[in-house]
Amino acid sequence: MRKKIGLIGGGNIGATLAHLILQRNLGDVVLVDIAEGVTQGKALDLYQAAAIDDLNGHIVGTQDYSALKGADAVVVTAGVPRKPGMSRDDLLQINSQIIKEIGQQIRQHCPKAFVVVVTNPLDAMVWLMQKSSGLPTHQVVGMAGILDSGRFRHFLAVALGVAVQDVKTFVLGGHGDNMVALPRHTTVAGIPLQTWIDQGKLSSQQLDDMIKRTQNGGAEIVNLMKTGSAYYAPASAALQMVEAYLFDEKRILPCAAFLNGEYGVKDIYAGVPVMIGAGGAEKVIELDLNAVEKQQFEASVSSVQKLVDDLKALGF
Ligand code: APR
Q: Is 224 found in the same domain as 111?
């Protein structure tokens, strides 16, 4: 039986995901958007791309949420992206109403789906999605850490002149300016990053600059593009999570997961390493954090808590 993957939001990230899913023949795609005709047009364009690529996938573009019936996985990108000068948090009011409505639609049409939220401000939106959909917490996760880690990995690989596949790292905490990069938990070809620094292959100043650039990674792209935000890397990151679920891979990926006491945090979503398999977010992996890392993680989580408190004050 072919898998069914729902994409809510057919803009830059949603359409890129649709193309990737068809290219990899992962399943059939339902692309839902509020904008009339856009997803129908993109579906037709993608069908024609599939014809040229000799692929046989199916894709439906619609405004009707009932088309999501029975979806195995859903990626939510609906909402408004940032403009230059805006922080992700500036999107809170506008995107929260959208996410709440979509949560209710998911509850009605595909309550068994694994749900990956991409809409910003990420950690607060995934909290709201879980609450408004009523789905179990292990079935609702947010995409941020893979993206942030991907950015850090790219900068490190370029600076060290090594293949990016050999750079492993985790960026944790909230998907905001104070996200937490963990050089101590970073390896290059299995060798701790500190060894490369000790050997003079990377300076501490370069490392600090790369961490700042990673924290500012989304804004750097928004400032260049001016009319939208990053979408190729966010789409690849969300797809990695969907694949881990559909193929029961048990991959350990940095994702926004519900914390129930892990890392000393309760009742909130934040970026941590999570095992993703057929059970969704099956397990939170606790890295040992030293005092400084712990403090950075707590500061990042308290920014998320503030946004969730704002949502509660708005009546969500
Ligand atoms: N229901 C369905 N779709 C909606 C709704 C809604 N209520 N409101 C907006 N949309 C759709 C828009 O019509 C648009 O097609 O969401 C889509 C968003 O696409 P883009 O504007 O291209 O944004 P994108 O780059 O895909 O980013 C989406 O992800 O990374 C985050 O900050 C980013 O929150 C933003 C989201």
A: no
H or E segment and range at residue 245: helix 232-246
Residue-range definition of the domain harbouring residue 165: 145-314
CB 6 within 8 A of CB 30: yes
Cβ within 8 Å of residue 144, ≥6 positions away: 122, 123, 174, 175, 179, 254, 255, 256, 271
Interatomic CA distance for residues 152 and 255, integer angstroms: 15
Choosing from 124, 143, 162, the residue where a domain stops is: 143
Contacts of 306 (CB under 8 A, 6+ apart): none
Could you give the CA distance from residue 261 to residue 24 in angstroms, rounded to a whole number?
37
Query: Is the minimum distance from the CB of 34 to ligand 1 under 6 angstroms?
Result: yes
* CATH number where 37 lies: 3.40.50.720
Mean pLDDT of 124-148: 98
Torsions phi, psi of 163, nearest 5? -70, 135
Q: Do 199 and 300 have their domain in common?
A: yes
Task: Tell me which residue has its CA closest to atom 36 in ligand 1.
Answer: 119
Q: Can you give the pLDDT at residue 81?
A: 85
Separation of alpha carbons 210 and 177, rounded Å: 13
Say how far apart CA 234 and CA 222 lie, in whole Å. 13
For position 87, what pLDDT does the model report? Answer: 87
Domain CATH for 210: 3.90.110.10
Asked if residue 137 and residue 154 are part of one domain, the reply reads no
Instruction: Write out pLDDT tens, residues 215-273.
Output: 999 999 999 999 999 999 999 999 999 999 999 999 999 999 999 999 999 999 999 99
Instruction: Look at the chain and report how many structural domains it folds into.
Output: 2
Q: Say yes or no: CB of residue 231 within 6 Å of ligand 1.
A: yes
Q: What is the pLDDT of residue 82?
A: 85
User: Are 138 and 171 in a shared domain?
Assistant: no
Q: Is residue 73 pLDDT above 90, yes or no?
A: yes
Domain ends where: 128, 143, 158?
Answer: 143
Whether the CB of 105 sits within 6 Å of ligand 1: no
